[in-house]
């Protein structure tokens, strides 16, 4: 039997700023809402605090974290911005874009955050995240608030169910608006490498940048992205054209596959076929379908364009072969 432990204190974001800052300043990781997913945040300049993030998540140490900043001034003190990088930050910050840039010497970012790389992943979140960073006056390292390899938390309840016995405080900002992690782009001179599709569609970034996002680098550039991730307990079966006995169904759009009625339970990512709505529902629906104890979760085909790229990416990782090699994601 598992030892019973008290679950985390859940505090509404309106009332949480002071307490969150106090705990963070004392080196304690705190789960906070961002517009993408909840983050497990700690002072990015404090190695002990950052080490606790890895421990709580069971995350491999070679997988670097995103440093979250309050504004452009803080970002500029940490990393070197080319004009192209500045243009992207200007267009999409605060928001779900993470830029991988050369880290400055004396940035103060602890090497555990960057896993010793000479680059740093930077993001300026919207809302509570930005407020808590500004008040603390320090960048926050914050991976998604979930056990490594599991589904990212998009509500305080989901975070509590996963990490509640390992952390002291969860700041409740309601369900996250975007529902998927940030898009990660590495800026290399005039080239842009898409390391992870996410909450901003690649097409939108290309329109601002005037160059194409190069794909296929993620395996090398973001080691934590290699294997199974976002994994519910039930196996996930993609592009289903019929339901098999005992399966639950994750649907998309107004039309159902032929024998949808045979499913143990059906949840629709977006009845009207809207990818933004589908992204916002993705992780919560996966958790809810997992909870019915179905034999597997069948997933209807989802279009590949726009936010569909990120949705299909997360689903492919949820369906990837499971292994316990420590190669799991973030
Ligand atoms: O929306 C988000 O990005 C959320 C919220 C909390 O901000 N955070 C998040 O963090 O998704 P995490 O740790 O789950 O994912 C960060 C990813 C990892 O795949 C990591 O490998 C990659 O960013 N990464 C971090 N630093 C990097 C670097 N210097 N070069 C390449 N990849 C990097
Ligand atoms: Mg993650």
Question: How is this structure best described in words?
Answer:
The chain is α/β, with parallel strands linked by helices and 330 residues long. The protein folds into 2 domains: 9-225, DHBP synthase, CATH 3.90.870.10; 236-319, Threonylcarbamoyl-AMP synthase, C-terminal domain (Rossmann fold). It is built from 11 helices and 15 strands. The chain has helices at 17-25, 47-57, 72-78, 83-92, 111-114, 128-136, 156-163, 202-209, 218-221, 275-290, 308-319, and strands spanning 9-12, 30-32, 39-43, 66-68, 97-102, 119-123, 140-141, 169-172, 183-188, 191-196, 213-214, 236-237, 247-251, 266-268, 296-299. A 9-stranded mixed beta sheet has the order 2-3-7-4-6-5-9-10-11, with helices on both faces. It has a 4-stranded parallel beta sheet with strand order 12-15-13-14. Strands 1-8 form a two-stranded parallel sheet. The longest helix has 16 residues, at 275-290. It is globular, with a radius of gyration of 19 Å. Bound molecules: threonylcarbamoyladenylate (TXA) and magnesium ion. Threonylcarbamoyladenylate binds at residues 34, 36-37, 39, 63-66, 96, 98, 100, 114, 117, 119-121, 123, 125, 142-144, 181-182, 184, 195, 221-222, 224-225, 330. Belongs to the SUA5 family. It catalyses: L-threonine + hydrogencarbonate + ATP = L-threonylcarbamoyladenylate + diphosphate + H2O. Residues 14-200 form the YrdC-like domain. One of its GO terms (molecular function) is L-threonylcarbamoyladenylate synthase. This is L-threonylcarbamoyladenylate synthase.
């Amino acid at each position: 039997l598992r030892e019973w432990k008290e679950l985390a204190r859940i505090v509404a974001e309106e009332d949480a700023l002071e307490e969150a800052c106090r705990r963070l300043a004392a080196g304690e990781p705190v789960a906070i809402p961002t517009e993408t997913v909840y983050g497990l945040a700690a002072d990015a300049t404090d190695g002990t605090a950052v080490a606790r993030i890895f421990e709580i998540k069971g995350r491999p140490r070679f997988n670097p974290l995103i440093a979250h900043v309050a504004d452009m001034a803080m970002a500029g003190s940490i990393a070197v911005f080319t004009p192209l990088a500045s243009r992207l930050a200007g267009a999409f910050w605060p928001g779900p874009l993470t830029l991988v840039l050369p880290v400055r010497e004396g940035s103060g970012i602890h090497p555990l955050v960057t896993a010793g790389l000479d680059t740093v992943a930077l993001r300026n979140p919207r809302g509570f995240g930005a407020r808590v960073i500004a008040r603390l006056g320090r960048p926050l390292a914050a991976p998604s608030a979930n056990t490594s390899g599991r589904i990212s938390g998009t509500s305080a309840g989901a975070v509590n169910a996963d990490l509640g016995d390992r952390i002291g405080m969860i700041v409740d900002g309601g369900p996250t608006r975007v529902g998927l992690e940030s898009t990660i782009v590495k800026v290399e001179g005039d080239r842009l490498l898409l390391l992870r599709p996410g909450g901003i569609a690649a097409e939108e970034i290309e329109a601002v940048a005037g160059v194409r996002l190069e794909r296929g680098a993620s395996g090398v550039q973001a080691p934590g992205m290699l294997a199974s991730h976002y994994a519910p307990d039930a196996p996930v079966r993609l592009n289903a054209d019929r339901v098999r006995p005992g399966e639950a169904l994750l649907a998309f759009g107004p039309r159902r596959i032929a024998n949808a009625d045979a499913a143990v339970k059906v949840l629709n990512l977006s009845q009207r076929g809207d990818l933004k709505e589908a992204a916002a529902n993705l992780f919560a629906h996966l958790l809810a379908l997992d909870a019915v104890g179905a034999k597997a979760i069948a997933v209807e085909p989802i279009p590949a364009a726009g936010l569909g790229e990120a949705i299909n990416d997360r689903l492919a990782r949820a369906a990837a072969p499971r292994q316990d090699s420590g190669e799991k994601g973030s």
